[in-house]
Amino acid sequence: MTEIIMQTTKYSQLALLLTSCSLITLPALATTSEQDAFFDSIAAHCGKAFEGKVTAGNSADSAFSGKKLIMHVRECSETELKVPFHVGDDHSRTWVITKTQYGLHLAHDHRHKDGSEDKVTMYGGMTADMGSAEQQSFPVDAYSINNFRDNGLDVSVTNVWHMYIQPEEFTYRLTRDQRDFRVDFDLTKPVALPPAPWGT
């Protein structure tokens, strides 16, 4: 009887140890209620595409002039959203919004037409505060700063990306010194789905 109790105790201790290890290796997500609401508001449009227009910009944004701008809330899970941003026939860009243990993270997945990664890709940043259900901001992170500098884009090392969502409109915005680029998308009028983004 004593031997059975000792074995049971050992198994309980082992289970406790394994549980503790799993908690260490798999930390809980730590998004705030505001960030969750923001994430869910975008996810509510999953499977739909919307047309936008540039509402702020300068000569640095000439690549967007006269092009049809389409965002497509294409892939949605409980922890990640993938939103391709199509600029005319350029299907190289996808916004990736991910829930992490530190908050929401925004990455820009850039691909070539053959699906290979661009040298400047997966740049973005982590939310620095709770934001709100309607707005989240993503200051540039260390990986992105290094990537920009490695590719001669020192002007981008102070980037802050912002996303806003209202019932009728979604906005993508980039700000830094002497640059304020903004695209507003009409959420009241879904449009035909664009082609798959490059690399998928």
UniProtKB/TrEMBL annotation:
Please give the name of this protein: Secreted protein
Question: Which stretch is the leader sequence?
Answer: 1-30
Q: Does the keyword Signal apply?
A: yes
Keyword set, alphabetical order:
Signal
Species the sequence originates in: Shewanella violacea (strain JCM 10179 / CIP 106290 / LMG 19151 / DSS12)
Highest taxon of the lineage: Bacteria
